[in-house]
Write a structure and sequence with these properties.
Layout: E1 7-10, E2 13-16, H1 17-58, E3 66-72, H2 76-86, E4 94-100
Parallel strand pairs: 3-4
Antiparallel strand pairs: 1-2
Length: 105
């Protein structure tokens, strides 16, 4: 930019055009710095949000697997009631192990 040295009178004060130019350039430099800090801050916040969401997603309460072991010996009727009862529970992450010791019924 070519510097303009023409003087302008403003409210009883003389200001050179190149002084105004310098102030504008300085202001633009500050605005660029502020913009850079705002962008960096926004990126940091974005990374934190992504990390928190990832942590929450991976650490949600998962139903732990449970083993239900039923030992049966000549208990056909009771065993049937037991299975009906188990079919009504809300907990779904379980395995059922049935041990039968040579029942005759």
């Amino acid at each position: 930019m070519a510097k303009i040295t023409k003087k302008v009178k403003m409210t009883k004060k003389e200001i050179k055009h190149d002084d105004i130019q310098d102030k504008i350039v300085d202001s633009l430099g500050l605005m660029k710095q502020y913009a850079k800090h705002i962008i960096i801050g926004a990126l940091i916040i974005f990374v934190i949000v992504v990390m928190v969401n990832s942590y929450v997603k991976n650490n949600r309460k998962k139903e732990k697997s449970v083993s239900i072991i039923i030992s049966v010996y000549n208990g056909g009727k009771v065993f049937q009631e037991c299975l009906e009862s188990l079919s009504k529970i809300d907990y779904k992450n379980f395995e059922l192990v049935i041990v039968n010791d040579n029942s005759t019924d």
